Amino acid sequence: MIEGDRRIVVREFTDAIRSAVDPRHFVDAMADIRATLETIERCCATVPGEVEPVARDQNLFELKISFKTWGLLVRIYETEDPRLPGYLVALRAHQKVVNVSQQDIDQMQNLEIDIASRRWVSGHATLWGIAG
What we know:
Elements: E1 2-3, H1 6-20, H2 26-41, E2 51-53, E3 61-67, E4 72-79, E5 88-95, H3 102-124
Parallel strand pairs: 1-5
Antiparallel strand pairs: 2-3, 3-4, 4-5
């Protein structure tokens, strides 16, 4: 089950889609995203290489999602805590930008990881509000 503050993650997905998808196709793109999130929740969405540990933060994993129809690459930084078996805690979602230099890609990615890391730290003690 995907948890965390769903409003934040949905807003981040929506922002990524809005910037990359023709407004006439926004509803269809959101439907694709919802379907993908549902398959992730059932642990059926990934193949080897789509989930990787984040080298600079051992608490995070990067879930790589490609929406080829929309030309959209989305990344979710998430954590899986043994105190929450069966849960994937989504900490940050964003559109991966690739039409810039590798140095810029790395810099933007590091900023996104920093956000996820801060959210991990701020929510860890309270289990991100999931259990209580």
